[in-house]
């Protein structure tokens, strides 16, 4: 089953309403979101606090049910159970029996997940090495730091060698060395053909790891795709570093092409729209100046993230304050 589906995760028009208290009011948390995750990729699901990231993940894990729409993993509806033997899951706040040791808890989860007895011990030892807990494997979990417990949670998500792994805030509580080790582990999983769905608000980790990303704000998907493709052609920028450019030529680049000039003296950096690079190069070279480098700027996820938040704020302002229609709170 797991090898037949190219889209490992498919979310189609998923709505989630909660009914706080005992009244008739309904709070809509997810507004018909849709996205998909392809086999063998690392997918980043990012958004501000309260955007609906964890609610979406709980629906995918079958912990809560969607009010409308459909969600599938490995071609199966998330309300089914058989496919879950192919899924690993790290919750945002994992809880463990703290009287057990790191090695014992992984043995417990390996047995619970159906790992054959003959290979169970080797799998546990491998995972302890992967997450950097081999030296602390026989210490009780009550003595573990938050970062060590997070590593334990990642190990339990992988103990049965799943095809798709869902990680809710996997870098939470980790120091810089721990984050680097877990990043390397996630890349190792992709190298083995696994699919990783990573729910996080640490944008730098998403930029370093993820093949594609979806940005959710107030329960709506604002962007989905590769980070590089999310910047429009008009918005893509490049930096030209030039030497010996005449003041009048620099002024033309600045005024006619909206170039941003930095530096002074012999070397000047010019930040310019990608579509104007050819004209700028022709002008600079024809004037006798030297072009030292041309560097396209990579789209920054932080910029995309802030653009999504600002777009949501504009939409909210256009709609006015949140209104209630038929008992439903709408944003």
Structural write-up:
- The relative contact order is 0.14.
- The chain folds into two domains: about 5-230, Rossmann fold (3-Layer(aba) Sandwich); about 235-295, YebC, transcriptional regulation domain (Alpha-Beta Plaits), CATH 3.30.70.
- The chain has helices at about 55-60, 100-110, 115-130, 145-160, 175-190, 205-210, 245-255, 275-285, 300-320; strands spanning about 5-20, 25-40, 40-45, 70-75, 75, 85-90, 165-170, 195-200, 210-215, 220-225, 235-245, 260, 265-275, 290-295, 325, 330.
- The strands form three sheets. A six-stranded mixed sheet has the order 5-4-1-2-16-15, covered by helices on one side. A six-stranded mixed sheet has the order 6-7-8-3-9-10, with helices on both faces. Strands 12-13-11-14 form a four-stranded antiparallel sheet, covered by helices on one side.
- It is globular.
- α2 crosses α3 (about 115-130).
- The chain is about 35% helix and about 30% strand.
Please outline the helices and strands.
Layout: E1 7-18, E2 26-38, E3 42-46, H1 53-60, E4 68-73, E5 76-77, E6 87-90, H2 102-112, H3 117-130, H4 146-158, E7 164-168, H5 176-191, E8 195-199, H6 203-209, E9 212-217, E10 220-225, E11 237-243, H7 247-256, E12 260-262, E13 267-273, H8 277-286, E14 290-296, H9 301-319, E15 323-325, E16 328-330
Parallel strand pairs: 2-16, 3-8, 3-9, 6-7, 7-8
Antiparallel strand pairs: 1-2, 1-4, 4-5, 9-10, 11-13, 11-14, 12-13, 15-16
Helix pairs in contact: 2-3
